[in-house]
Every structure is written in structure tokens, then in C-alpha cells.
Amino acid sequence: MSAFGYTDESPAGGGEDGQRRAGHWNDRPRHHCGLFGVYGVPDAARVLLRGLMALQHRGEEGAGVAVSDGRVVRAVRAMGLVAEMAERNAAELAALRGRIGIGHVRYSTTGASDLRNVQPIAVECRDGVWAIAHNGNLTNAAELRARCQALGAIFQTGTDSEILLHMLAHPRFVRRPSPLVAALKTLRGAFSFLLLHRDELIAVRDRYGFRPLCLGRLGGGHVIASESCALHQVGAEFVREIEPGEILRIGPGGLTRETFAAARARAGQCVFEHIYFARPDSRLFGEGVHELRVRFGRRLAQEHPVRADVVIPIPDSGVSAGIGFARETGLPLDFGFIRNHYIGRTFIQPSSAERTDAADLKLAIVADVVRGRRVVVVDDSLVRGTTVRRRVRALREAGATEVHVRIASPPVRWPCHFGIDFPTRSELAAATRAPDEIAEIIGADTLGYLSLHGLRAELSQPYRYCTGCFTGRYPEPVRSAAPKFAFEPLLEAATEAHR
Ligand code: 5GP
Ligand code: MG
């Protein structure tokens, strides 16, 4: 039983779902993925791999690329990190010739049969090959999937992303002046897509702009990436973000843009991209991520000052905010935790005890920094509270005299339907508890969260964000949120080759 009254082993619901949902972040299904695409770039496959490596933080369970030589599309997909995928498939990757391609990094469920869910997904339709890579979560996926199946579609993956391909292949959509526009109009929820079709690279962002996507220039060609850090990695220059509701086509005739839906006045950019997902060296939704997190940390210090001796951020996600907190208070910032970089990979551990061990292996304490001191621990977010609870205990064991926890975002109270896998309400520490109660459970002397007002005040365009995980008010109503495992296969496929 965890401190919050649910077991790590089988959360509410139990059964097979419960088993598969067991554990912490790393073995839960994820939809926050990373996208990278290239057009008119020599040696597309190599550039794609470099770009994907810079997006590895957005998904470490599977990676893939699809490259077109103008006629034939070849794809390589594998479980694991981009570097592992590249190493294991060196010969196949060397054979990928072409100047157009898309790539994807993914967080997904565990298990060997999952390779079928690794993207890009490529299929051959009457009008040629379509390859697709998706970041986000469709909220009407269950309904659309059932409709496609009623019309005879045979799904090959357990992803919601495949739905778009079935629509693009269906006569109902093929008949329309723009099948892609017609299909996109039916999708609800969050989607940034990269599509590869014939001699075109197509980038799409949903009408609310939940997930990021940006355009860069590389030599005479173009690249598209989830985050600008990947543009820099390949030497591309940032041009602009794809607009909410925009379809950008890059083809032999140049760039053409089209909208499939008016961008909503109250847009829905995910504020958690700024808080946690994005890499600090990215510029995203018009903000520099590191600088913004530093400002969150400063404001957190103004809202919840504390007498202490040292500020210790939890690496890596709490570092920028910790710097801000220290700057604002004038307290020294120190390395209280050292991250073991070799434990970065997902641990698939059979028991909760082993998973806990794995998580504890990741962060070690520098006892000399904390012994006999009053410590402020800064982290970016508190979701279930298990991470920080372990850290507080470790700090006390290492001799900290007081432990004050400061969280650089508001209390997460509501689930996310738009691509962050926040657990059900019962698993969210703050869903029904006041900060004082949480402080007691995690064993902290005090606990302070950045207020929603404070968070919004630091954003240059606060009205353009979704803050549904804090407020329960979402930019788009969710009618039929598909249960997370609605699409788990009834047929267990054997593991395929890495292609
Ligand atoms: P908790 O232990 O409270 O459930 O999780 C909070 C910690 O997990 C924070 O350190 C935060 O950086 C991290 N975190 C927040 N959201 C996510 C997520 O979606 N995926 C992963 N891997 N970590 C997350
Ligand atoms: Mg963290």
C-alpha cells in the first residue's frame, strides 16, 4: 500500500488492466511522444536519427523512422532508445535512401508485442504510401475506431494514431476535395501529426495546439520538430511554430499552408510542456523553457519563503526552478542529489519493491551537503507524491535537520485527456488533500506549491494554455475519453523483426 492509499501493484479496477497499470510513471502507457521530420535534406535518415536523439526525453520506449526516395518508403522501427535502435539496425538504416522522412520516439506500454505500436506507422493505400507519426491523444478514438471497424477496417496496432490512416483510405474521405482536411475535422483531442505521402511532408497541429510542433530551415530543405532543441541538434534554424489548426505541406512546389479549423481564441497549449516535458534548452509556445522555469522558481520563493540553509533541486526536472528559488532567496544552491545517468532507461521490474529500488538507484544523496542543514527541496511537480516522499526520507536519513518541499507548479487535481498520462483522480495526491495533509504524508516540515495565479502571471500569453490538470476545466469537452487500454490487442502478435 502506498502512502496515498492505493497499492503500487493494482490500482483501482484491478484485473488485467490493473496489472498492466501497476507501478509508477515509467511503466504506464504514455502519449507524450516526440516527432521529427525532414524535407529536401540529403542523408535524411542520419539527420532524422540525430533529431530524434535530441527528443529522446519525450519517449524512451520505442523509436522509428520512415524515409522516402520519392517512390519507395522504407521504415525501421524498434523498441528502446534511438541509439539502441540505430545500433541494432545499422545495415537497414544505411540502406534508407532519400531526402524526405519522418521519425518518432514513443512512450508506451510494456511487453514484447508492443513493437507493433512503435511509429511511424506506414501503409500502402490506393494513392500511394502514407506514413504517420503522432504526438497527443485523441479523445474520440474509441468511437472513431468502432466506426472504422464497422466499415470493415482491420486495425494493426493498438494506437489511436492509426485511425487517421483508415479514414484517409476510406472512399468516404477519398471522395472529398481534401481527404486530409475532412478526416482531421472529425478528430477530437490532442494531435500533432507528421505525415509522409508521395513527395510531400505534411505537418499538422490540432485546433487548440495542445502539443508543440515547429518548423526549421536546414540548407535548402526544411525540418519539423516537436521542440526546437532538436532543430539546433541538426544545425537547423528556427523559423516558426506550426499554428493551431494548421496543415503545412512541404513539397516540390515549396511550402503551402491551409487551415482545417479556426484556431480557438482560448487555445489549449499544454502548460505541463513548460513545467515538465520540454527540454530546458527548447523555445516552445513562444517562451524559452529554462528561463520560464527559473521564473516559476523565483515566484515560488516569493509565495512560499522559508528559513533554510540550502536549496536542493531534484534532478533533472527540478533544476531550473531550483536555480530560480535560490536566486530569489539568496540561499546557496547545491548538488544534494546526484543522478545516475546509466539508470535513465525504463525499468521493467516484476515487483513494486524492485521498481522502488530502481528508482532509488537513479538519485543518490551527497550527505555532506545536507547533514545538519535545513534543506529546501525543489521539484517541478508533485503528481502521486511517491517521488518526493522517498527523497524526503532519504534526506532525513542523511542528516538533514529540516526538509521543506517546494513545488514549482500548482497541485495536480484532475486527469489529463490530452496526452499526459495523469492517473485517475484517486491516485493524484492533491485531488482531495490540502497541502498540509500532503506535507504530513510525504514527511516534509512544510510544503508549498506555486499558485495557479503565479504560474499564469509568468506566462506571456496565459490565455493560450490548457490548465485542466489544475482546474478540471478543459478547453474542449471530453465526451468519450477512451479508457487507456481500450485498444489493447485481443490477439497477441508474435514479435516481428525490427522493421
Ligand atoms: P510523483 O512521484 O509525484 O507521482 O511524480 C512527480 C515526479 O515525476 C516529478 O519529479 C516530475 O518531474 C515527474 N513527472 C511528472 N510528470 C511526469 C510524467 O508524465 N512522466 C515521468 N516520467 N515523470 C513525470
Ligand atoms: Mg522529476
Overview of the structural elements:
- There is one protein chain.
- With 499 residues, the chain is of the alpha+beta class.
- It folds into 2 domains: 15-265, 4-Layer Sandwich (Glutamine Phosphoribosylpyrophosphate, subunit 1, domain 1); 283-471, 3-Layer(aba) Sandwich (Rossmann fold), CATH 3.40.50.
- Helices cover 29% and strands 23% of the residues.
- It contains 18 helices and 23 strands.
- A 7-stranded antiparallel beta sheet has the order 3-2-4-1-10-9-11. The protein has a 6-stranded antiparallel beta sheet with strand order 5-6-7-8-12-13, with helices on one face. The chain has a 4-stranded parallel beta sheet with strand order 17-20-21-22, sandwiched between helices.
- Helix 11 (289-303) crosses helix 12.
- The longest helix has 15 residues, at 289-303.
- It starts with 14 loop residues before the first helix and ends in a 28-residue tail after the last helix.
- Guanosine-5'-monophosphate (5GP) binds at residues 25-26, 276, 314, 317, 379-388, 420.
